[in-house]
Automatic annotation (TrEMBL):
Keyword ATP-binding recorded: no
Pfam families hit by this protein: An_peroxidase
Keywords: Glycoprotein, Oxidoreductase, Peroxidase, Secreted
InterPro entries: Haem_peroxidase_animal, Haem_peroxidase_sf, Haem_peroxidase_sf_animal
A Gene Ontology molecular function term of the record: peroxidase activity
Gene3D superfamilies: Haem peroxidase domain superfamily, animal type
Location of the protein in the cell: Secreted
Highest taxon above the source species: Eukaryota
Biological process terms in GO annotation: response to oxidative stress
Designated name of the protein: Uncharacterized protein
Length: 596
């Protein structure tokens, strides 16, 4: 992030020299536009080539034309992030954290206190250090202990169908037996999964995806490669401001685009630090034969000369949306809010001095996310009432009849979608940005992105916008068909505990990778944090819910979803002062915008 901030400021200074008549806002926006193009080019032309095998990279349509424009923009394509990619696939980046800081002297410095010597020392360490092999380890033992339990729990929280369904979605065949996974998972891995799950249809996406061996020439297995490739293809197709697009007014000139395509992460490191030598492929560790460090002055760089006399730009501003409401469901929401206040007054929330409270800052929802969640809860309450009537839940109905009707029930189907229409359905109010985004119509002549991403697609302004819901490749899989996470196996028994999966399938063993540098990890973290954000529920006055108790879903908040500690856990004792021990887990904020 420091490197990118420096690059933005460097570009702005050069542009000011080339065009002294430009106003500060124009300099800022044009430098921002160039920096976004650099990030897109590095991601697709360098980073993805490192992750995906060559065949998958080409088949997904991710290749960058070295000289021409991209003509594949499609306004019907939504570039939003798929739920399975955000929760399952992107999690692999966490496995590349090193067990110890690269440079202890600089690892704890605040960002605004970094000096040139500190950054150079840190970058030098990242360039030559090997990232851990793709596996279950997440940095230090303390950091990795519960990562996988958390990821599996969050996967179930979001209703992801499971590994076998996504394999089938990717054209890798059905998985009736564990032996059907032999093309991608080792015999030892299959044995572990079979012992844990009993049925391949119960295997969680994270567990199965990370057990796959890497596809030829890549880092990921075939399932994760497929999902990630499809996601990034949609991002490119649906982004009206994609840096290679060839239509006015936001396209770069041929000369400008040619300069942008000279950019590599190695060149950014050279021009924004005091380093004198770097390897040309910085996502890979130095190799004396194929990737030897070279002098920075020999690495080609982008020239900003083609930007001389670029005309002024204006910000894009989108229209305001209207709120809709359902009064009866709002009353239920009010009751929940009263309950949250009572929990707060009784002290059943996390203390601001605790480690849990501090860690929760990474998942703190903003006001816009809370408004979306409040609307979603209203719709969920309405859906539950209608579902109970549809499933005929009464004592004189047999369980088999209820299950049969539930199997036919389609929460997102036309039945529920047509129940409440018009102004009876609440919608979240707009988020108010300082510059007035979403308050004025989209400007098709503006070459600049809005800060929120609104108006990227003129026909569907919300496509690709921040604070929009994750997309889904497959229909969600919930226990009750609405929102309760999966609890039972297709064989009838309970699903294995996420904590058991964490310790059994993903042992805490570090395997340093001899090919990938820690720059690869750092850039992956930047992409992960930039494109995904999963806020969790908060209590009264945005307090952090204390969900450590195993009965917290009943005693504290219905959105508590604690992870039980199984007997024989290698770290946690199963009992805590005579009571069962659980690991705190708070469910993600809901985001449904219609009944179902």
């Amino acid at each position: 992030m420091i490197l990118l901030m420096r690059e933005h400021n460097r570009v702005a200074k050069v542009l000011a020299t080339l065009n002294p008549h430009w106003e500060d806002e124009t300099l800022f926006q044009e430098a921002r536009r160039i920096l976004i193009a650099e990030i897109q080019h590095i991601t697709y032309d360098e980073f993805l080539k490192t992750i995906l095998d060559g065949v998958q990279y080409k088949n997904a349509g991710l290749e960058i034309d070295p000289s021409g424009y991209f003509t594949g923009y499609d306004s019907k394509v939504d570039p939003g992030i798929e739920n399975s990619v955000a929760i399952g696939v992107v999690g692999f980046l966490g496995t590349t954290f090193p067990p110890t800081p690269v440079d202890q002297a600089t690892s704890t410095k605040e960002v605004n206190k970094f000096e040139n010597s500190d950054l150079d020392s840190l970058l030098s360490g990242l360039l030559v250090s090997s990232t851990p092999t793709l596996s279950s380890a997440f940095g230090s033992e303390e950091a990795s202990r519960d990562l996988w339990a958390y990821m599996v729990q969050q996967e179930r929280d979001h209703g992801l169908p499971g590994y076998a369904k996504y394999r089938e979605r990717c054209g890798l065949g059905t998985s009736k037996n564990f032996s059907d996974l032999a093309d991608d998972i080792s015999s030892a891995g299959i044995a572990s999964l079979e012992e844990l799950y009993g049925s391949p249809n119960d295997v969680d996406l994270v567990a199965g995806g990370l057990m796959e061996g890497p596809a030829h020439g890549g880092l990921l297995g075939r399932t994760f490669s497929c999902l990630l490739g499809e996601q990034l293809k949609r991002v490119r197709l649906g982004d009206r401001f994609w840096y290679e697009n060839d239509f006015p007014p936001n396209q770069f000139s041929k000369e400008q685009l040619a300069e942008i395509k000279k950019v590599t992460l190695a060149s950014l490191l050279c021009v924004n630090s005091g380093l004198e030598r770097v390897q040309s492929q910085v996502f890979l560790v130095p190799d004396p034969f194929l990737n030897a460090p070279v002098m920075c002055k020999t690495i080609r760089r982008m020239s900003l000369e083609p930007w001389r006399e670029v005309g002024p730009r204006e910000l894009i501003v989108p229209p305001r949306l209207l709120d809709l409401s359902v009064e009866k469901a709002k009353e239920s929401l009010k009751k929940r809010q009263d309950m949250e206040k009572l929990v707060f007054e009784r002290g059943r929330v996390v203390s601001p001095d605790s480690a849990i409270w501090k860690a929760s800052g990474f998942q703190q929802p903003n006001d816009a996310a809370l408004r979306v969640a409040n609307t979603s809860i209203v719709l969920e309450f309405v859906t539950q009432e209608l579902t109970n009537l549809f499933l005929l839940k009464s004592p004189n109905r047999t369980a088999s009849l209820r299950l049969k009707r539930q199997a036919l029930f389609l929460p997102r189907g036309p039945e529920l979608n047509a129940v409440f229409v018009g102004d009876r359905l609440p919608q979240p109010p707009p988020s108010f940005c300082p510059d007035g985004e979403e308050t004025r119509p989209c400007d098709p002549k503006s070459p600049f992105r809005t800060f929120s991403g609104w108006c990227n697609n003129l026909a569907a302004p919300h496509f690709g916008k921040e604070l929009t819901l994750f997309d889904r490749l497959l229909a969600p899989k919930y226990e009750d068909g609405i929102s309760t996470p999966r609890l039972r196996s297709v064989l009838g028994g309970p699903l294995p505990s996420p904590r058991v999966i964490s310790t059994f399938v993903h042992p805490d063993v570090s395997h340093p990778n001899q090919r990938y540098s820690l720059v690869f990890m750092q850039f992956g973290q930047f992409l992960d944090h930039d494109v995904t954000m999963t806020p969790v529920h908060r209590g009264f006055q945005k307090s952090v819910l204390d969900c450590r108790s195993c009965d917290s879903s009943h005693q504290v908040h219905p959105e508590c979803f604690p992870i039980p500690v199984p007997p024989g856990d290698p770290f946690f004792p199963p009992m805590d002062f005579g009571r069962p021990r659980c690991i705190s887990f708070v469910r993600s904020l809901p985001g449904q915008t219609k009944l179902g």
